[in-house]
Amino acid sequence: MKFEKVVRGRIVTPAGEFPGEIGISDGVIAEIAEGRDTLEADEIHDFGKDFVFPGFIDTHVHCYSNPNEGIRRASQAAARGGITTFLDMPYDLPNPVSNGDILKEKIKTINDEAVMDIALWGTVPKEDGPQVVAELADLGVAAFKLSTFETDPYRFPRISDADILETMKLTAEKGQVIAFHAENDELLTQYMDKAQAEQNIEPIYHNLTRPPVTETTAVIKLLDMASWADAKLHIVHVSHARSIDYINWFKSNGTNVTAETCYNYLLLDTDDLKEHGPKAKINPPLRDPHEVAALEEKVMEGEIDFITSDHAPWQKEHKTIGNEDIFKAKSGTPGLEIMIPLLFDHLVGRKSMSLNQFAELLATAPARRFNLGRKGSIEKGRDADLTILKDKTRWIIDEDDFISVADVSPYHGHEVDNRVEAAFVRGKVVYTHEDGVTDEVSGRFVRPDEGGGQG
Ligand SMILES: [Zn+2]
């Protein structure tokens, strides 16, 4: 049998890693074979000894926190970073994805502009929130994201406990995951007000006004509510090991809960916040080195379900405004283009994580959690989404060289020892190191359950 394309390399599958070939037809993985020269095709992509991973999935991206970014650029940045599917967050400027019309518009933008596949988060408005759940779920959001902390009363509101509980029940009825930005609004607002009143505005005060208790108290409340509501709970960007201990207790007692951490919480700490100031300002904040080590242990032990970038494409003006007063800078860092190489160096290179665990954390588990059944794993019948990583090749991160409009990164000047060599989305080459990223709009909106290909 002849395939449209064959991809050769060291293939990372759930059954193990081996030198082999993947036969692709109609954008789908049609065959997987060990060894070389066993499969026939008109088009052969031979990656030698490079790793062939399932296309990586980033479930936490903010395309429109800064509208200068948008779907087209973010999708090209993702392709270059080896991310073949991402889930875009709902807190868009000017309008959050909290009703059907806005959602339909965003789906259209994806189908008109994306170079790789994108699924969407929905959210609920501050008033009468629960009423939008059914419509957004039926239109195809992958999950719902809410916050216990108010970034902006319209775009990124704090939702009341009563509405959280009601929304949890409604998302459970729809079989959908409900995720939370978990920080205790009352505590940290008071801490921030006090720090600012006392002119304590150096970078470290971003950490000191958001101590671990501001995260853990929010997490434990949500866990308890989710257990009463029978909800499928997900906690985004966990920054502290104690949150994971609470999550594990509820998990072992039957609550349907998962958690992610973000790459920054594993690679940076409070010393970076002091050194880089606004560039390293994220919410929740970077933690002390011993807390970072404890969180990393949770990742290595398999106690954290997956890792995301929390890509926020801020530009210099959004960050330098905080040079004198950390509270004035925007929160977040870009991640789509650099997360995979940085994590591969750290987790596989330095910590000897297995290739399978790396694939689980960055592709398989996120696809499973959000019902993207055609994504996340190199198996026959799934979409031919593949990311090729070349190990032991050096380059230096340059914040002025991103495809993303983001031009500030705490990793600027950081040396990396592997790179994304190529990325395939449903069998189509969307990026190669040699030729760069495609201009062709071949990405699609992805609905849960059905996976790729749903327009
Ligand atoms: Zn986020």
The first-to-last residue Cα distance is 30 Å
Task: Tell me, briefly, the overall form.
Answer: globular
The CATH superfamily name of the largest domain is Metal-dependent hydrolases
Which cofactor or ligand species appear?
A: zinc ion
Description:
The chain folds into 2 domains: 2-52 and 382-437, Roll (Urease, subunit C, domain 1); 56-369, Alpha-Beta Barrel (TIM Barrel), CATH 3.20.20.140. The radius of gyration is 21 Å and the shape is globular. It is 33% helix and 25% strand. The protein has 455 residues and is an alpha/beta fold. A hairpin with a 3-residue loop joins strand 15 and strand 16 (436-437). The strands form 2 sheets. Strands 3-2-1-4-13-14-15-16 form an 8-stranded mixed beta sheet. The two termini are 30 Å apart. Helix 7 (212-229) runs parallel beside helix 8 (241-252). It has helices spanning 70-80, 100-113, 133-139, 161-173, 185-197, 204-208, 212-229, 241-252, 263-267, 270-276, 289-300, 316-320, 339-350, 355-369; strands spanning 2-13, 16-25, 28-34, 40-54, 56-61, 83-88, 117-122, 143-147, 177-181, 232-235, 256-262, 306-308, 386-396, 415-425, 428-432, 436-437. The protein contains 14 helices and 16 strands. The relative contact order is 0.17.
Brief sketch in words of this structure:
The chain has 455 residues and is α/β, with parallel strands linked by helices. It has two domains: 2-52 and 382-437, Urease, subunit C, domain 1, CATH 2.30.40.10; 56-369, Metal-dependent hydrolases (TIM Barrel).
